[in-house]
Every structure is written in C-alpha cells, then in structure tokens.
Amino acid sequence: MVCLSALGSGSRGNALVLSAPEGALIVDIGFSRREVRSRMEQLGLDPGRVRAALLTHEHDDHSRGCRVFCDDLDIPLCTASPTAEYLRRRGKLPGRVLEFEPGCEFQIGGFEVEPFAVQHDAVAPVGFVIRRDGLKIGIATDLGNVNMLAMQRLTDCDALVLESNYDFQMLRDSDRQLYLKRRILGRHGHLDNVAACEALGTLLTERTRLLLLAHLSSECNSVDLVRRLFEARLAELGRTDVEFGIIEQDHPLGSFELRAEDGSVRKVC
Question: Could you tell me if 79 and 128 are in contact, meaning their C-beta atoms sit under 8 angstroms apart?
Fold first, then answer.
C-alpha cells in the first residue's frame, strides 16, 4: 500500500508526499519548512516519518524549503548532480545530499526511484517514476512537452501526476511580457491543457486508477476549465473509472490510498 498526498502545486510552491508503512518520501519542497509541516499536519501526516526528499529541479517553487526541511529532519536531498552543484554554489544545499544521474534507478526509504530527463528551462530537470509493492507512480510537474522519453516512462502508471499549466487563449490575452509568453509556450516551457489532455490517450492504461493535475497557472488557467476539459477527455476515452483530482496552490488536495492487491484507490482525507 502507498498513500499519495498532494500538499499543493503552482508557481508559488509544489510538494507531494508518498507514504508507506515503513516511512515516506517527499517530492519537491517548494514551500517553507513551516508551510510544509502545516500542510502535512492538515492531512494527518507526520513529518518525522519522511526518510528522504526528491527534487525535480532547482527553481524556487520546487526547492524553496529543501535545505531547512532536510536539515531539520536530518534526511538526504536526492537530486541530479548538476542541480546539486547549482544549489551548492548558492548555499542552498542541506547537509546530506544524494546525487543521481537521470536514467539511473536507485532505492531510498523502501522505494525504487527512476529519475528521467524532461524538457524544461532548468539546469537538469527530471520527472520521477516511483515503485513500491507492485505500484507504479509517475510524476512530471514541469515539462515543455510530453516527448518520447516522457511518454515511455509515464505510460502504464497506477497513479499519474501530470502538469496542465495553461490555456493558450488565456496566456495569449494575458498582460505577461512577450518574452515570458514565448518561454512558457516553448518546448522547454510548460505543458498546456490541450497537450496534457491529448497525452492521456497513450498514458492511461487499464492499470491507471488515479490522475492528478498539477502546476496550474493562477493567471492563465482555471480549475473549472481544467475540470471540464479532463472530465470530457476521460469520458471520451471511456475512463470515467479513473479517480481524478486537481492540485491547487493554496491548500492540500488530500491523500489517496493505492493498493496493488485489489487495484483500489481511495481518498482517505
């Protein structure tokens, strides 16, 4: 059994927790230590059970609380070597660090972790496939597009956390500067609603039971729009059986319990 808890996601902070009976992992710590602890406690999670932190990339909305949170609990931060060096030069690394190379699997805290490279404008950004007890969980919160590698890694997961960052029309009509619009739209930017929707046709398999959408733009997207689009897409694919949720910025979405033995998913809080 694995419990997937979504603490929050967006341009002001991102964090997920994967819990098992023996301990937990936290993926990204884009909030302050105090905020992470507060959100975990809202979901009944004990920060003292976290065995390690995984970092997707160095941007502040993913790494803000890494050093203080990890040092406070004396746990390692697992990150790509170039990302570790970037943070080291800026004094933002905790005392314990486990460096990895994308594509090289490792085990930590009772979980098997496979980092894979994604296209995003960071030093060495990665997504993660995390396995335990026959369960496969895919996480990709910042990616310019779902390229072949990302498609291969994220297909056939029991639970999938996928970016759905912006609506094209809303981004085009926004007051954002042109260079920023181009950055977001580029292949190293962010994934839009339509591209994320289209990818589901390949990513979802009979095994998939939980879909969580992440990193929604507060200015160029809306929860209602994303909900309508993805509910329609899941219906089109004949997958209304998939548990579906949207991770918002300002509060935790909740915790979902996944069991491999009976293929069940249950929201527990």
Answer: no
Burial class (CB in 10 A: 0-12, 13-18, 19+), 253: buried
Q: Which helix (H) or strand (E) holds 42?
A: helix 33-42
Residue pair 98/78 in contact by the 8 Å Cβ criterion = yes
Here the tokens at position 228 are 């309508």
User: What span, in angstroms and rounded, lies between the C-alpha atoms of 152 and 114?
Assistant: 12
Do the beta carbons of residue 2 and residue 19 sit within 8 Å? yes
Closest to 63 (Cα-Cα) out of 42, 37, 38, 94: 94
CA atoms within 13 A on the CB side of 35: 20
Query: What is the rounded distance in angstroms from the CA atom of residue 75 to the CA atom of residue 22?
Result: 15
The two tokens of residue 236 are 């089109």
Blockwise average pLDDT, block size 10, the chain, 269 residues: 97 97 96 97 97 98 98 98 97 97 96 97 97 97 94 97 96 91 89 97 97 96 97 97 96 95 83
Beta bridge mates, 129 = 114, 138
Residue 41 region by backbone torsions, left for phi larger than 0, else alpha for psi between -120 and 50, else beta: alpha
Note if the pTM is more than 0.70: yes
Q: Residue 27's beta-bridge partner residues?
A: 16, 54
Question: Where do we find the tokens 């990339």?
Answer: 57
